[in-house]
Structure to design on (219 residues):
């Protein structure tokens, strides 16, 4: 089945270019566009896209606020939420950190090559992150706020000792191969542990794992 892609940006010319790019791909379907965050919330409910490309700086409601509302409303309605890929002008800036904390699956620069943007869409749709976990950790070290960190939730207690070890290494940004070497495991076993950890904690990808670790002081 085709991946349904929606676009949110306040620049009409940019939207037209991305729409043409998406329409040129046989495995992608353009699911609609919006010019501000409030329109994005309505678009997400109406079209229920698989992936939303979300600008950050927009009138009425910015991309971070729109991301929070879209994910919250999908959860309240029992719908599968879209994977949100944030479009930003600056690499590793505070807005990127805020967007990831809000639930975005990653971010790409607005001047990225078309091939990279297409690959990013397919990557987040597959359930993976676009921003490496190590970059996410760097983001939160640079722009994170220490106040208001919450204690570990009940679900944390469901992790086995081995899963907690793997979690700690993943939260530091280590790759599967690096975790495998550190824990004397195969990469396949590491992937299995990561999948179980994400499932138990209700997380979508390793980016959210890093955010979870930071917010609960677990990494």
């Amino acid at each position: 089945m085709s991946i349904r892609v929606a676009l949110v940006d306040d620049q009409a010319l940019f939207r037209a270019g991305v729409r043409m790019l998406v329409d040129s791909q046989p495995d992608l379907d353009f699911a609609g566009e919006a010019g501000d965050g409030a329109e994005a919330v309505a678009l997400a409910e109406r079209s229920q896209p698989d992936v939303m490309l979300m600008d950050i700086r927009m009138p009425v409601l910015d991309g971070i606020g729109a991301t929070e509302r879209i994910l919250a409303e999908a959860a309240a309605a029992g719908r599968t939420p879209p994977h949100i890929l944030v479009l930003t002008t600056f690499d590793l800036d505070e807005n990127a950190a805020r967007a990831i904390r809000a639930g975005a699956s990653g971010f790409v620069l607005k001047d990225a090559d078309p091939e990279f943007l297409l690959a990013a869409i397919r990557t987040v749709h597959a359930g993976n992150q676009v921003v490496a976990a190590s970059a996410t950790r760097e983001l939160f070290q640079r722009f994170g706020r220490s106040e208001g960190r919450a204690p570990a939730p009940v679900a944390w207690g469901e992790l086995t000792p081995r899963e907690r070890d793997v979690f700690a290494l993943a939260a530091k940004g280590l790759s599967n191969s690096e975790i495998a070497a550190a824990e004397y495991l195969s990469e396949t076993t590491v992937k299995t542990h990561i999948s179980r950890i994400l499932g138990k904690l209700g997380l979508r990808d390793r980016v959210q794992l890093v955010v979870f670790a930071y917010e609960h002081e677990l990494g």
User: Anything to note?
Assistant: Strands lie at 3-8, 28-34, 51-55, 83-88, 106-109.
